[in-house]
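Objective 1b of the project was to move from sequence-level analysis to a structural picture of ligand recognition. The entry below was assembled by the postdoctoral researcher (A.K.) and checked by the PI before modelling. It contains the amino acid sequence of the target and the SMILES of the bound compound, adenosine-5'-triphosphate.
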Amino acid sequence: MLSAENLHVDVGARTVLRGVSLEAGPGELHVIVGPNGAGKSTLLNTLMGLSRCHVRKGRIIFKGRDVTREPLYRRARMGLALAHQIPPGLRGLTLRELVSAMERLYGSAREVEWAAEILDVKEFMDRPLFTGMSGGERKRVELYLTVLQRPQVALLDEPDSGVDIDTLERIERLLIELRRRGVTVILVSHTLYMLEKLAGHGAIDRVHVLLEGRVAASGPPGPLLHALREGGFHGLAATAG
Ligand SMILES: Nc1ncnc2c1ncn2[C@@H]1O[C@H](COP(=O)(O)OP(=O)(O)OP(=O)(O)O)[C@@H](O)[C@H]1O
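Corresponding predicted holo structure:
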């Protein structure tokens, strides 16, 4: 469905990714973990096609097509969506107005009623975006807007950061449901506790550990999450050599 082949990416004057490869099939949930600054957001932004991420080498294949040079809007039309780590500011619109505009673009919001329920966003419908929303509320709305695009591949950048434990549980349910519905998810997360729960449900297909712009380890979640719990990224880096 989506693969990165030996991606080397510069942001500004800095080389951030140094040969990253991964391959996610239909309906798979892949998790990217790594220390702050390892390049996780840059990887998602590059897959989405944000113009500040300059691909110096390597390719991105989406649905069998080389999209490395395709602009963001074309990738979005093909079925790729990104939930930002820090949702961009929107002004002058209520959530209801945005939902009805998106409904015209992507089809019925009724199709994703299940996501509105899981994320419990109804109370925000008549609030202007994102005025006065707490960090966790904003994350829920951002996730809902991503699902509303009915993507085939959802790139989720730390949807779980700064949210309370009840919201974490909602996000877990959302991830399990997206996977069940055949949506491919690439998730960046620091929440080991949530990842272990998801792995316990058999909901994670693969974990990739990114260290200094390279995939230091990649595999099924059990052994990798265990190694991270025991030794942190430092321990894993030592094992990976
Ligand atoms: N425009 C830029 N100019 C210079 N360096 C940049 C730029 N954008 C990102 N970087 C650097 O690239 C590195 C990777 O950033 P990125 O946001 O991808 O990390 P991350 O793994 O997502 O980190 P975190 O876990 O803290 O969110 C960081 O060291 C960051 O400072």
